[in-house]
Amino acid sequence: MLKVYLSGEIHTDWREQIIDGAEGLDVQFDAPVTDHAASDDCGVAILGAEEKKFWHDRKGAQLNAIRTRKGIEEADVVVVRFGEQYKQWNAAFDAGYAAALGKSLVILHGPDHAHALKEVDAAALAVAEEPRQVVEILRYVLTGKLPG
Questions:
Q1: How far apart are CA 50 and CA 54, in angstroms?
Q2: Per residue in 22-33, pLDDT tens?
Q3: Number of independent structural domains in the chain
Q4: What residues contact 90, with CB distance under 8 A and at least 6 apart?
Q5: pTM greater than 0.85 (yes/no)
Q6: Which CATH number goes with the domain that contains 22?
Q7: What is the pLDDT of residue 88?
């Protein structure tokens, strides 16, 4: 079984496209919490309210980091998606962490980000533009079969 961690942008359905496309493959997926409000508020919901937004966000970030570290450390392949609309500093951090751990790293972004992410892309074993390409990478890794 191939364990795949799907990191990055949370505003589109790219994860579902990959998961649906990989049906029938021996793959187990993991991902961060993609409910934006739950992700932001987990720290104060569990550890108590904070008056200042900085500490509110910090509590959430630290709890999310526990989940993210576990997911990346246990993964065989880490896919990091950079979306079009927002700057994903957390995605860049996840890519760097995965690279530092020697994980097989697949980066997913559109052509408009090619220059901005050139160093991140250089650390990856593959750079894809579409979720279907990630599915084909996983299929090839598991079966040796090309698309067609």
A1: 9
A2: 999 999 999 999
A3: 1
A4: 8
A5: yes
A6: 3.40.50.450
A7: 84
